[in-house]
Recover the amino acids of this structure.
């Protein structure tokens, strides 16, 4: 995520919102003890084993507050880190370091936690045909960061938002009047380059989706046995995705069924943060 245009178009505004959330008028704690500009240096320390993600976002917080800020990074996104590792050193105006600390760490800890959890599941799928997908079950205003972290951890992104692809779920199907009609309407409305995915909760719906010409069939909340039957019925005529009740404990079992994709909302809604701290602040320009 180190593309300058990406930051200016998609990221900077979200970081500014987070900073405004934390500093409504001033950082009264910092301003009470630091009355003038001083340059400081602080260490970024890892306190837990995991996968790092979000280093550019972490530093962007400080560079917004102090354009002269500098980062000396010893790791990059995707690296495995260990408890006790020195990850980076940040040099900037002390007021920027103190005021931006929590916001910067919130991004880095959250993104690294998602990357770590994703990597632990993606590793379980090595050697299988199944790809691990995220979902739209993301924290409001954090989707771009969380989906990026999934990719860093070795997962793949499902659609980014509702404008990104056609996924007809149970309520869409009910509103349209059935699977066949839903696919027909979607095919008629959408550009020809769009794939159409149908959510199926039974073998009957799988057969309907297949006959209607769905490109992807999502096997939703099915038992293992039913999913096996569904994959046999589809027989490569459409791509397959399993969803619903996808836990870390079930992933290897699901991969053996031979589905193309395994979507897991827990990657973004249940991953714990990675414990990382800013420590040992020193004033170098007194």
């Amino acid at each position: 995520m180190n593309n300058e245009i990406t930051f200016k178009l998609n990221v900077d505004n979200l970081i500014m919102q987070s900073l405004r959330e934390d500093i409504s008028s001033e950082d009264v704690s910092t301003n009470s003890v630091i009355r003038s500009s001083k340059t400081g240096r602080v260490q970024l320390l890892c306190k837990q084993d995991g996968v790092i993600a979000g280093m550019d976002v972490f530093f962007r917080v400080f560079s917004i507050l102090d354009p002269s800020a500098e980062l000396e990074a010893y790791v990059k996104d995707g690296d495995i880190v260990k408890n006790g590792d020195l990850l980076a050193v940040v040099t900037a105006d002390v007021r920027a370091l103190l005021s931006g600390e929590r916001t910067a760490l919130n991004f880095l800890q959250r993104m690294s936690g998602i990357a770590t959890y994703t990597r632990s599941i993606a590793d379980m799928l090595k050697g299988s045909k199944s790809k691990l997908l995220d979902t739209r079950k993301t924290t409001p205003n954090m989707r771009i960061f969380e989906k990026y972290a999934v990719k860093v951890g070795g997962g793949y992104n499902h659609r980014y938002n509702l404008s990104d692809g056609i996924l007809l779920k149970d309520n869409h199907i009910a509103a349209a009047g059935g699977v066949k009609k839903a696919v027909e309407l979607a095919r008629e409305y959408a550009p020809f380059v769009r794939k159409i995915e149908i959510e199926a909760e039974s073998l009957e719906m799988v057969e309907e989706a297949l006959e209607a010409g769905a490109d992807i069939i999502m096997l939703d909340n099915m038992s293992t046995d039913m999913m096996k039957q569904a994959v046999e019925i589809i027989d490569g005529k459409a791509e397959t995705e399993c969803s619903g009740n996808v836990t870390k404990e079930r992933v290897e079992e699901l991969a053996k069924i031979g589905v193309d994709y395994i979507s897991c909302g827990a990657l973004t809604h249940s991953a714990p943060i990675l414990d990382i701290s800013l420590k040992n602040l020193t004033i170098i320009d007194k």
